[in-house]
Specification:
Number of strands: 3
Radius of gyration: 19 Å
CATH architecture of the largest domain: Orthogonal Bundle
Structural class: mainly alpha
Distance between the termini: 40 Å
Number of helices: 13
Number of domains: 2
Shape: globular
């Protein structure tokens, strides 16, 4: 599965570590060095390096500030988890029983951290070209959309800034339902401000539903 995404495999030992969630080592009383935390730390820098290069070359006229804003969304848990789902990483993560029961396999942060750890593993296995090809295929398509529709990806922050600017209050995000089968849920969330439902957002994760709903709320309020 990862070979299909990256082209060539990383070292098997490194890759296993990259896919091992901290809950697994903790619940089995194993050494913490056997989980993905160190590789995720390293992979985060690898991701930012390659992403920065991609943006630097794609937008030669953009100042540092604008490039940073695009990159912050591009490397967010929201985007990385979507890519992780796309390549089937959610089915490969090694979790502890408790984390598994709590839905850890679908948790955005787990997917994002594991993907960063996998990138770190491939880099340490001298697979820089594979990483570049992977990001070009799976991450680059988001760049243009983020650049052209920045408000859509940053809607929660925009909405919060607006409501705080009005009366220093915050919008509420209320989960009203989970639709679809257990293996592919669709979350439905209301965005409420001053006891009024501004909008309803849907998404494969709660964060995605919140972001989609916040964008609709911003449009209703005339903020975007």
């Amino acid at each position: 599965m990862l070979e299909n995404a990256f082209g060539k495999d990383a070292g098997k030992k490194l890759l296993k570590v990259a896919l091992t969630h901290p809950s697994y080592t903790k619940e089995n009383n194993l050494d913490d060095l056997g989980n993905y935390e160190r590789l995720e730390f390293f992979g985060d820098s690898v991701l930012k390096l390659f992403t920065s290069k991609m943006l630097y070359e794609s937008y030669p006229d953009y100042p540092e500030g604008k490039l940073s804003k695009i990159r912050s969304i591009l490397v967010s848990d929201y985007i990385l988890s979507k890519i992780a789902f796309e390549i089937g990483l959610d089915r490969l993560i090694i979790l502890g029983p408790a984390e598994e029961k709590q839905g850890g396999r679908k948790r955005e942060s787990n997917l994002a951290c594991s993907l960063e750890a996998v990138l770190g593993a491939y880099y340490l296995s001298n697979r820089g070209k594979c990483i570049e090809g992977f990001l070009d295929k799976y991450l680059k398509p988001y760049i243009k959309d983020i650049d052209e529709h920045f408000e859509k990806y940053n809607a929660k922050d925009i909405l919060q800034q607006y409501t705080q600017g009005v009366d220093k209050t915050l919008p509420e995000y209320r989960t009203t339902g989970v639709l679809g089968p257990a293996h592919a849920p669709v979350f439905e969330i209301e965005i409420v401000w001053h006891d009024e439902v501004l909008a309803v957002g849907k998404g494969k994760t709660k964060k995605e539903a919140q972001q989609n709903g916040a964008y609709e709320a911003c449009k209703r309020l005339g903020v975007v």
